[in-house]
Amino acid sequence: MSHRTLIRGGLVVTAADELHADVLVEDGKVAALAAHGSAAAEAWTADRVLDATGKYVIPGGVDAHTHMELPFGGTSASDTFETGTRAAAWGGTTTIVDFAVQSVGRGLREGLDAWYAKADGNCAVDYAFHMILSDVNEATLKEMDLLVGEGITSFKLFMAYPGVFYSDDGQILRAMQRASGNGGLIMMHAENGIAIDVLVEQALARGETDPRHHGEVRKVLLEAEATHRAIQLARVAGSPLYVVHVSAEEAVAELAAARDKGLPVFGETCPQYLFLSTDNLAEPDFQGAKYVCSTPLRPKEHQAALWRGLRTNDLQVVSTDHCPFCFRGQKELGRGDFSKIPNGLPGVENRMDLLHQAVVDGHISRRRWIEIACATPARMFGLYPQKGTIAPGSDADIVLYDPHAEQVLSAETHHMNVDYSAYEGRRVTGRVESVLSRGELVIDRRQYTGRAGHGAFIHRSTCQYL
Ligand code: DUC
Ligand code: ZN
Ligand code: ZN
Ligand code: ZN
């Protein structure tokens, strides 16, 4: 028997349109939209009517950069697929794209299967995977083709973290050449990790062990240099390039220059670079460790360039790089040596709200909010129009968003499995009211009604943003 839900009276906001429309959902898909009050909408019947008066009706968020349960620095990211996807739902995100990891000396298959096993049966919302390449060799290159056929259509490479994830320029070029042949999208962690490791060693030798030195050694110039080099390598290989977690004005300039030449080069930034800064890294009593991530937080002056990049489309996506580690017992591993602080910030639950605050503050328009947080990440990673929009035939991943509710972000009230909030005490206007995932209410008027195992693996097609 078909199951019909009617979302009535809200303002439907997509990347393309804003309209006062009712949305009919049938069997987990969007069946139709019609102007509120129109004869067509008035004639609809449904098992369930959700009153969206005064609310925005927006596509569920697509967070294209999360690390649930990531092993890092002798510990493991504190959100599991269960807790992390539940927190995502609370924050209005209904699809995550997480990173499966190849271990050095191992194949892609083994790494990917381990990530399937972690996620299977545990997710509250839908999920997909990118693959991190840690050991590019002939076998790895061949396996890339198989993964593209399996819906794993993007590959992350690291110019940083020698000995762990690092690839040299030859390995990067080979992976890019392979991707240009099989339709895969190369995602780049652009920091010169060889140079950074020299600066880390020298800083520690001088006794500079506090968290703020993490920001000082991971220099803007070394992000810009790596970004430039990645772009040139992609040009040589004839492949598109997506640079992850862009944090610095000089890196945005490299992307902008490439895009001005018409090159298929794309950039992602994250809420932490838009809302936090080196001031946080300098917080006393080792509190700065809460803000250690890579690329690092930058001086406040960089934020304007990131917002400008988001407005001009030199940056296309805001994802979180959600990679939470508790302060107690995890971040504390780096007391006396900032290089031992596990890298990463929590944020999967906060992204949609922080970006809505950016709408309120006038940094971006309402439709641009949906474009950078839903539609473009879906297009970029082959999920559109199943995800990222509200249109007939799309999955009914829909958020009823209250644009007037006031909230204070805090670890006391968040649902991420981490003992601090990077945004503790921050007031934001706007809050998720209800969330549908494939037509099922997973958040119902601020109550969690979802379940682990509802979320399904999504087989992605190749990049649709070219
Ligand atoms: N950066 C982080 O902050 N955490 C995980 C990996 C990365 O590149
Ligand atoms: Zn029914
Ligand atoms: Zn990275
Ligand atoms: Zn990451």
From TrEMBL:
GO cellular component, one term: cytosol
Keyword Metal-binding: yes
Reported cofactor(s): Zn(2+)
EC number(s) recorded for this UniProt protein: 3.5.2.2
GO molecular function: dihydropyrimidinase activity; metal ion binding
Alphabetized UniProt keyword annotations: Hydrolase, Metal-binding
N6-carboxylysine: modified positions: 156
Top-level EC class as recorded in UniProt: hydrolase
Pfam families per UniProt: Amidohydro_1
UniProt keyword NADP, yes or no: no
PTM comment text: Carbamylation allows a single lysine to coordinate two divalent metal cations.
Limits of the Amidohydrolase-related domain: 56-442
PANTHER family noted in UniProt: COLLAPSIN RESPONSE MEDIATOR PROTEIN, HYDRANTOINASE/DIHYDROPYRIMIDINASE FAMILY MEMBER
Similarity-based family: Belongs to the metallo-dependent hydrolases superfamily. Hydantoinase/dihydropyrimidinase family.
UniProt name for this protein: Dihydropyrimidinase
Gene for this chain: hydA
